[in-house]
Amino acid sequence: MSQEAMLEVRDLHTHFFPRRGIVKAVDGVSFSLHLGEVLGLVGESGCGKSVTALSVLQLLPGESARTVGGQVLLDGEDLLLKSKKQMREIRGHRIAMILQDPQTSLNPVFTIGNQLSEILVKDNEKTGGGVLQQAVEALRKVKLAAPETRVRQYPHQLSGGMKQRVVGAIAMSRAPDVLIADEPTTALDVTIQLQYLQLLKELQAETDMAILF
Ligand SMILES: Nc1ncnc2c1ncn2[C@@H]1O[C@H](COP(=O)(O)OP(=O)(O)OP(=O)(O)O)[C@@H](O)[C@H]1O
Ligand SMILES: [Mg+2]
Fold first, then answer.
1. Are 12 and 4 in contact (CB under 8 A)?
2. Which of 63, 126, 119 lies closest to 96, judged by CA?
3. In the chain, which residues fall in CATH 3.40.50.300?
4. CB 3.0 to 4.6 Å from 26: which of 38, 48, 88, 119, for a disulfide?
5. Which residues neighbour 94 within 8 Å (Cβ) at sequence distance 6 or greater?
6. What is the chain's Cα-based Rg?
7. For a pocket test of ligand 1, which of 47, 66, 213 has the largest count of ligand atoms closer than 8 A to its C-beta?
8. CATH 1.20.1560.10 fits domain 102-212
9. Which protein residue has the closest C-alpha to ligand 1 atom 18?
10. How many CB atoms lie within 10 A of CB 138?
11. 112-160: per-residue pLDDT in tens?
């Protein structure tokens, strides 16, 4: 493709520095992703797919992991040079993520409606009933059944597949340019996996975002 990439990773190196030695988890990875494109990172377990995704988002675990080389260009700007504050802004708004286990992405003590509203309020500076209605609409978009009921429920009252749809709704509510989905379906059973991938494909066609799997 000739037009400039939305996300371009160039010669990325991310290493772990345990007490002794060094683990070169990502050692020279390059790829580019355009709007409207879906790109899958494939490879055996432990080859560095998750660490690549976390490097792009700068959500590497703890002190022991560091990106030591390369560039992560979002629309031409190197994310590796951004401050923590700038990255918080970018995550969620420009790059959204869906992780493998919806359990870790949802807060068990807040209702689904609360968790969606929190984002909608932040983004639109709206309050009150309008926001809950928007949350219902967001859930409808990801084809969650009975969204009016679901907004008032807590994560533990939903199935795994339903929770992952909520995570999808949260990610999509920001209209991101890039969606990073690190094995978003491995916690789901096979028929639900297919439905979820189909849903992501439909949402992608509607919004023209780029998806990295
Ligand atoms: N916290 C850590 N400390 C040290 N090494 C780690 C840590 N997390 C991951 N690694 C190493 O980084 C490498 C890449 O791991 P990563 O999780 O990216 O693999 P993956 O390709 O996502 O695998 P899977 O398909 O199983 O999810 C592995 O060799 C792993 O041992
Ligand atoms: Mg992984």
1. no
2. 119
3. 102-212
4. 48
5. 74, 75, 176, 177, 178
6. 18
7. 47
8. no
9. 48
10. 24
11. 999 988 877 766 655 556 888 889 988 998 889 999 999 999 999 998 8
